[in-house]
Structures are given as C-alpha cells and as structure tokens.
Amino acid sequence: VAQNDFAGKKVLITAGGTKEAIDPVRYIGNRSSGKMGYALASAAAARGATVTLISGPTNLKVACGIKVEYVEAASDMRTAVLAHYNESDIVIKAAAVADYRPQSTAEHKIKKTGDTLQLVLERNPDILLELGQLKKQQMLIGFAAETQQLVLHAQEKLAKKNLDMIIANDVSVPGVGFNADHNIAKVLYRDGRIEELSKMSKEHMANIILDKILAECRK
Ligand code: C5P
C-alpha cells in the first residue's frame, strides 16, 4: 500500500448500526458491528486522508487522528452526515441504517400489561438517497447487505441512489459479513463492471476498496 496516497482528500465514513428508541430503555437495532466502517476509517487515515467518522453505537476503538461523532438514531446520523457532506471528497456509507423507526417513542418505560404489544413503525429518511440527489464533486460509495439476489438488488441501489460504487455483501454466508472479522464482497460500478473480492479480513478489504476508489478518482 502506497503511503499517503489519500493525502489532501476529505473522507466521510459512516459505520455501525442505528438504534431507534421504543421507550427510555428499549430500542430496535440490527447486527452491524461497525467493523467494516472502522477498518475503512483506519485505513484511509493511515494513507493520509482527513477522516470524519460518523458512528452508531459500537464496541470498537477509534484509531487516533480520526475525528469521530457518535450518533444513535438514523435521524441523528442524517444531521451529522449532512453537516459534513459539502466539504467531503469521498463519502463511504458503511453504516446499517434502520429503515423504520417507532412512530412515537414512549416517554416512560412500557409496562407488560397486554398479552400482545403492537408497535407502529414509520420510514426513516434514506440518507444515501438524499446524498445522491445532492451530489456535486463527491464520490459516493454505498454498501448493500442482502440475503438473496445480491447483484440485482445492489445494481438497483447503485442506480436509484446515484452512487459511483457499491460494495455488496451476501449476509447469508456464515462467518462473513455482519459482526464477523472477515468479509466477501462484490464491487459494482456505474458502467456495469462487477469485481469479486474473495474472503479476507475486513482490514485487508478496506485497503482494497480504497485502492479501487482512488483508481476511479483518477479516471
Ligand atoms: O437500501 P439499503 O438500505 O439497503 O441501502 C444500503 C445503503 O444505503 C448503505 O450504504 C446504507 O448506509 C445506506 N442507507 C442510508 N440511509 C438509510 C438506509 C440505508 O444511508 N435510511
């Protein structure tokens, strides 16, 4: 890996899952560990980028030299990401953002009275879709985690969200993807190219993704 090949580049990265509050003690969450996003942030910083990491709650440590903002809900992540978007050169949305949130958050802990409890969920804003619509100079990279029809769904997202690149993970394969230390992925581009990334550590994959981003920037 060439040292400092990201010098002068401002890279905005989101990582981890969001938590959507049900009441003061409960939330809806997902299995994202944040490892892939943190690996990308560390690798970009090591290669000389100025990195801002917008992180959902995780158990991970942030490498020094990385500016980090912690958020919980998708709506907070949206605010934080939009605040940094205009100044960014490269934006990598590795976070697993909740698609739905409770329509209302109870002020007090919900007591177990009924035999069933119904929660009404409403759509969260799609941050990446909005970034695609606002896009100017930024190179925009998304992630897709799917359990079926990986390539088809990833291609649809790439087009709909106006991305330059999408990293597609099949999360039905045991030992890789969500909460694992390794990953297997496909990289899809606007012109229809698809590249396969075989099983490797998330740290290694982070550097390969950064190589590919740089190659696209130079075109
Ligand atoms: O459509 P889907 O949620 O699968 O798209 C995944 C990509 O979109 C990821 O890069 C994720 O970070 C981003 N996303 C987002 N805001 C949402 C949902 C997903 O930015 N509400």
How would you describe this structure to a colleague?
- The chain has 219 residues and is an alpha/beta fold.
- The chain has five helices and twelve strands.
- The strands form three sheets. An eight-stranded mixed sheet has the order 5-4-1-6-9-10-11-12, with helices on both faces.
- β11 (182-189) and β12 form a beta hairpin.
- α1 crosses α5 (202-217).
- The protein is globular, with a radius of gyration of 18 Å.
- The two termini are 19 Å apart.
- The mean pLDDT is 95.
- Bound molecules: cytidine-5'-monophosphate.
- Cytidine-5'-monophosphate (C5P) binds at residues 14, 74, 93, 95, 97, 99, 124, 126-128, 142-144, 157.
Write the layout of secondary structure elements.
Elements: E1 10-15, E2 20-23, E3 26-28, H1 35-46, E4 50-55, E5 67-70, H2 74-85, E6 90-93, E7 100-102, E8 121-123, H3 127-134, E9 139-146, H4 150-160, E10 165-170, E11 182-189, E12 194-201, H5 202-217
Helix pairs in contact: 1-5
Cytidine-5'-monophosphate (C5P) binds next to helix 3 and strand 9.
In short:
The protein is α/β, with parallel strands linked by helices and 219 residues long. Helix content is 27%, strand content 29%.
